[in-house]
């Protein structure tokens, strides 16, 4: 029996990519055409945005915790959140959470360490890039990082929040991401974190100037491994 995965979702595009990856990449361990049981819950996206604009992290945490409780009631045995930005609120709710969580930045940092990266460029929303979500987890693995310049952060945030989360994928936006990643490469980065769950919809190893760390799919694959494991991990993963 595999474990039931609970997805605490925020934006539709990122959550859908995570869900699809879990279902389509489950592999032979779950039987022919099989995958673990999955439940998904999201609060009203507009309510998340209102909290983010005010940087009301307790408000974000309250919505995530409400989702966690509903997923627990639905039978979920552990939780993932395919939204990097919301992880700023995760420490505020862990003590009250009814279930353990996989942390997206820990999953990415572990993969970066496994692949031998030494210095990574960070991409994502302005809230995520300005935060300690990735720096803390990368530092724990001895991995250096670089944030985009201020004007680049604003432009990346605009592309993510006005285009990608709404399913709009423009060639000029792909080129802008590529230019930012090329700037990372020029100053010594050897990889780039796709630190928004929608970025892998337009940037991947085939069109990126640097090797990518796809946070969405890495989280989904980590959830699959845990769902297929024989012993449940308790507490923060």
Q: So, CATH architecture of the largest domain? A: 3-Layer(aba) Sandwich
How many domains? 2
* Biggest sheet: strand arrangement: 5-4-6-7
Task: Examine the coordinates and then state which fold CATH places here, giving the name of the CATH topology of the largest domain.
Answer: Rossmann fold
**What class, by secondary structure content?**
alpha/beta
Task: Please explain how this structure is put together.
- The chain has 237 residues and is α/β, with parallel strands linked by helices.
- The chain has two domains: 5-103 and 217-227, 3-Layer(aba) Sandwich (Rossmann fold); 104-214, Rossmann fold (3-Layer(aba) Sandwich), CATH 3.40.50.
- It is built from ten helices and seven strands.
- The protein has helices spanning 12-24, 45-54, 57-73, 90-93, 104-115, 126-130, 133-140, 150-162, 171-186, 215-227, and strands spanning 5-9, 38-42, 78-80, 119-123, 144-146, 191-194, 212-214.
- The strands form two sheets. Strands 5-4-6-7 form a four-stranded parallel sheet, with helices on both faces.
- Strand 1 (5-9), helix 1 (12-24) and strand 2 form a beta-alpha-beta unit.
- Helix 1 (12-24) crosses helix 10, helix 5 crosses helix 7 and helix 5 packs across helix 10.
- 45% of the residues are buried.
- The model is unreliable at 230-237 (pLDDT under 50).
């Amino acid at each position: 029996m595999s474990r039931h995965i609970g997805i605490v979702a925020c934006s539709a595009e990122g959550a859908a990519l995570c869900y699809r990856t879990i279902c389509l990449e489950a592999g032979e361990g779950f039987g022919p055409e099989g995958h673990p049981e999955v439940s998904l819950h999201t609060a009203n996206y507009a309510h998340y945005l209102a909290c983010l604009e005010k940087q009301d992290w307790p408000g974000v945490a309250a919505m995530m915790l409400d989702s966690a409780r509903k997923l627990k009631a639905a039978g979920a045995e552990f939780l993932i959140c395919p939204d990097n930005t919301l992880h700023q609120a995760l420490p505020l709710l862990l003590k009250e959470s009814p279930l353990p969580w996989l942390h997206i930045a820990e999953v990415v940092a572990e993969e970066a360490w496994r692949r031998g990266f030494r210095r990574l460029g960070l991409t994502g929303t302005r809230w995520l890039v300005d935060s300690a979500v990735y720096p803390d987890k990368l530092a724990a693995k001895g991995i250096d990082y670089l944030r985009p310049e201020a004007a680049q952060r604003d432009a990346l945030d605009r592309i993510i929040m006005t285009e990608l989360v709404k399913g709009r994928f423009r060639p000029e936006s792909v080129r802008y991401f590529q230019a930012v990643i090329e700037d990372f490469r020029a100053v010594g980065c050897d990889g780039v974190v796709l630190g928004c769950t929608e970025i892998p919809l337009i940037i991947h190893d085939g069109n990126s100037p640097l090797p990518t760390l796809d946070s969405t799919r890495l989280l989904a694959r980590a959830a699959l491994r845990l769902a297929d494991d024989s012993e449940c991990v308790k507490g923060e993963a």
